[in-house]
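[job 4471] stage=fold_predict status=RUNNING
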Amino acid sequence: MTDGETAEWEPLGPHGAIMFSLIDQWVKITGKEPPEVEPESPLAGDARKSRSLQVAHAAWTAVVHSVDHLHALRALLGQAQIINLGAPYSLVRAALENAATAVWLLEPAQRRERLRRRLKLAHNDAWEEGKVHELLPAKALQGKRTAQERMVEIRALAVNLGLDPSDVAGRVSHGKIIRAAVKVTFPEDEESTEDRLSPEDQAALVWRLCSAFAHGKNWASFSWLERQIMRSEAGVHLLRLTGGAERLVTVASFPIALTSRALQLYEKRRRSPYSAA
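[job 4471] inference complete, writing structure tokens
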């Protein structure tokens, strides 16, 4: 198989082949320098307000991380042709969280909201770094800016931008980010009923399922994987659990759709409205 050629493994079906094709294209895009942000574009305006914490940088980094994990999934399923029980779902989870974050950052039309979300992510990142610093010896941190100093700077920038620093310092929830990103990516389904989950609920379910696999939760294996009773004794069953390619393709459809949307939004926000089409 030549580099970049899409492998079609029969168990994945046509949807898997389409998924692989998109991932191959995205790997080429993210393997290069980010697309240029035009001077009069929304992202350029964001950068003039916040030079140290740019929306463009954070959004593109999230896209790169999403594609990175999708590419690993593509290599596992399409090239190695291996279906592990739980590991692929960890890759889907990481891709889903990052793709949703990129959409969440880029979707707002208002600069104020894009900057608010960028600073919230930065403050959360600094807080998490602080937790890591607590585990390191003081010698390893000598001469380095502390996480607390970073958080103080971020809250000060929020004040300069007219944002609420306590809001910027608030909790960041992957679950809420995923729901918000899916809501603006998938059109409203007028046929949604109590018996049919909304796209946001479906995505939240996929995220929780993938997280459960990452943490080895029994409910994920027993409710999602294929089960075969090998032996029973005194009411205790010995089960064989097997993964299915179609099920993986199903859950991967969410980060695929969100990554596509994130790239569309990045292209839109990096372009100047005054430039030629």
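[job 4471] summary: Residues 6 and 20 are 6 Å apart (CA to CA).
[job 4471] exit 0
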